[in-house]
Amino acid sequence: ISTETDRVTFLKNVSKVFMSRARLKLNVKRLYAADGLAVKELLKIANLLYQATKNADEDDATDPDATDAFELDAEAFDVKLVRRLASEITQRGAAIY
Questions:
Q1: Structure pTM?
Q2: Tell me, what DSSP letter sits at residue 2?
Q3: Quick one: residue 67, left, alpha or beta (phi over 0 = left, psi -120 to 50 = alpha)?
Q4: Fewest Cβ atoms nearer than 10 Å: which of 7, 28, 30, 61?
Q5: Please, are residues 12 and 23 in contact by the beta-carbon 8 Å criterion?
Q6: Cβ contact 24:18 at 8 Å
């Protein structure tokens, strides 16, 4: 993001993502100006994220068994197989690079 056009393109893409995924309209001109009005735009994002974490915490508090479903048993994995696969992934990655 070293040039002006890169910064503008970045902000436009971020704005498009928020519009399509979160239905949150951001004013790109205000964000680019980086002044007090940009803070208002950033507060929209902060409020959205705050509400999401607040709702997630409430969901966790109402359903304590939900986290138990995702716990993994360490003995369920074959340690030798995992090590071999991890080493193979590393070797292939190094060969590609």
A1: 0.54
A2: -
A3: alpha
A4: 61
A5: no
A6: yes
